[in-house]
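Worked Example 4.2. Consider the chain below.
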Amino acid sequence: MAYSGAATGRAAYPANSVAELARFFPDAMPVRFPIQLTRILEQNGVAEPSESTIVEFATSRELLFASKTPLEFGDQLRVRNSDGSLEEAASVVAVQYQPGKTLVAARFRRDVPNWIVKS
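Applying the procedure from the previous section yields the following structure tokens:
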């Protein structure tokens, strides 16, 4: 005998949003807080001009956001929140390119306990 049912999922989000990337991170939860993002050039450790963006999803180790900067897998970042209580290095671990923006998942390079609370 066959049974039918419905499965619950995440709330509906617009296509081409950070939520599309978040589905690859099962522990990701919706958040919303501003950060200052700076890409660090590996050749000489020089920082590119920074960008303000919003973290839209997060796990205990990753933050997911949209960026106007064309980031790539492996890029090194400096992430800072508005009051400076969070300033950490992170590496880009996933990207999805969209017209005019890049959807990014970045992982902290060290363990940052309670980082979501600091943001």
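Residues 18-22 form the longest helix (5 residues). The CA atoms of residues 36 and 111 lie 20 Å apart. Compare this with Example 4.1 before moving on.
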